[in-house]
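haha ok so turns out i had the wrong file open the whole time. this is the CORRECT one, sorry everyone. sequence first:
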Amino acid sequence: MPVTEAAGLTTTQAPFIEQAQKNGQIFIRQPYELYSEANQEAWRRLYTRIKPRWYRYANDAFLRGIDSLCLDADHIPRLEDVNRFLCPLTGFQAQAVSGYVPAFVFFDCLRNRRFPTTITIRSLDSLDYLPEPDIFHDIAGHVPMHTDRAFAETLVRFGECAHTAADCMSSIPDHSERSRVLTNVIRAMARFFWFTVEFGLMRSRHGLRVYGSGLLSSFGEIEHSIESPNVQRYPIQIEWAINQAFEINHYQPLLFIVDSFDHLYGLIGKLEEMAKQGKLNQAAPGEPAVNEHDLQSFLRL
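then structure:
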């Protein structure tokens, strides 16, 4: 018998989320009782079909993370259960949010070992593509990586980099110029995050493996990223990554490769130095767009 779709906590159809957003709440609870059977079925289908591809294409740290978190293939995880396994390993915790988190707030959460986690899940008729994060992307894609100490420290370093960038803005007296420069800095940081944490590839003893969460949570693109001749794969150069625009509504034609998590950690150190030296102030134009909420999250410090 087909599962009947109900609002529950379905992405873009959840009254609980709409009310939280209307109230200006970013950080919320996970009202587990609101998940519908269709929501649970969406999780089951997503998890079951992608699991074999994780063992074929994912990096070893991710696979260890899946085991460490004891995720249930049949039920959407309770964040309190996820954190019970996660926090003792690296100090990270999944923190429920109502949706979009302004740029500085997001990076500051990473600095404090909290990962903003969407609690809604895509509908059964949209399993293959969603233009925004959902709980499958965040918990099954991101959080297993947070069980690895080296990767966790990399995320914390990203948060520190955002604080450095914000501090640099205080030396620019003119508000208009400060906003212009900050727009470029945020764009550069967002691009670097995209091409590493979200869509990164890594060398391994088995060849290229996926560590980017956007790939790890996509049934189609995880395979495409490794196997397709249409994907350009290059060793990462930070100057390329921060000046390369990206679009979210199709498979990525360009991906960057790191050697290890230590390599990635060092790159973020270089990104922070570039911020101090003003080398992020002139990022090439293009996507992603930087909105007023992102700007104000930095400027209100």
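The longest strand covers residues 93-97.
again sry for the mixup
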